[in-house]
Amino acid sequence: MAFSLALASTALGIDGTRGCTRPLEGDARAEPEASDASRPVAPDPDAARRARVVLTVGSRRVTVGELEDHVAGIPQYQLETFGGSREAVARAYVEQVLVRDLVLAGGAEQRGLDKQLPTSQLLARALSSAALRKSRSSGYASAAAVPEEDVRRYYEENRSRFDSPERINLWRILCKTREEATTVLDTARKEPTIAKFNDLARDHSVDKATNMRGGNLGFVGPDGASNEAGVKVDPALVKAAQSVKDGELVAQAVPEGSSFAVVWRRGTVPANKRSVEESSAQIRAALFRERTESGEKKLIDDLRAKNVKEVNVGLLGLIELRPFDAGLGLPRAPVGPLPDPKSRDR
User: Fold this and answer.
1) How far apart (Å, rounded) are the C-alpha atoms in residues 322 and 329?
2) Whole-angstrom Cα Rg for the chain
3) What pLDDT, on the 0 to 100 scale, is given for residue 320?
4) Which of 9, 114, 165, 320 is the most exposed place for a label (fewest CB within 10 A)?
5) Nearest to residue 10, comparing CAs of 2, 23, 18, 233?
6) 0.85 exceeded by the pTM?
7) CA 273, CA 3: separation in Å to the nearest integer?
8) Which CATH class is domain 166-270?
């Protein structure tokens, strides 16, 4: 495969001692003089320099700018292995890296390897990752780049996450009558164990949603809302529990609607209050993640709607998956007792 290489010391702005691109004395990257607003804007000379083709391999071309960007990403200790001058670094990198990669890539394409697995899958994955990276450029560059006003807006809209009241873990047995509740309470006092409370809840509680788990209501806030999904109780239970310590039973049965509750305070999560400054890092990470995921989802949904024409689900049953079809995915039953190691010496 033929290739051509054109390197000129005045064309490449590569600093061989620092591993980055830099302006050259007297070249097109020097700072332009201030121009009058009425003066027509001249073409960017540096853009023209970077657009010059430095390498051609088959139908592939590499520009000066692309070569500079390649070399700029090389760590200093690696850059020094290519040479001691700007032109030596550029020439060695082109000959040892770029030409080799492009020649081999072209050879693979000529053999159709880019259309075969696993190469085609790896290429598709690389393009997929590139598309996602490009979509992220429209959002926050990083968590640290999230603007302060966005952080404060998120804090105000989600204040309950950063300013939450004390929550108490309540276990409750709901009885039909005060007399029954008093009897249950006396029994629980004599044997204040989880096992006994579980038995009492199962036998006496009319709350069928919790009686099989000891009447555990989860951690409940002053408004009666629990951290358990769908659970909310009378705030009077919380107020009654505030009169005792963790691990203690409320002294009297607590009225709850037309029933009466035996309440056991099992534990407490203290109130949590964090300022916007204290929560800033957490909020920035959350916003960055949300914006990134939202952008990726929109990109995928748009591309899916535009490009996916048909998914023939009916044919999926024809696909052979050898581990499953061969029975290798199923657990194997033991064949028999293991041989006695001592028998080998007999």
Assistant:
1) 9
2) 36
3) 79
4) 320
5) 23
6) no
7) 67
8) alpha beta
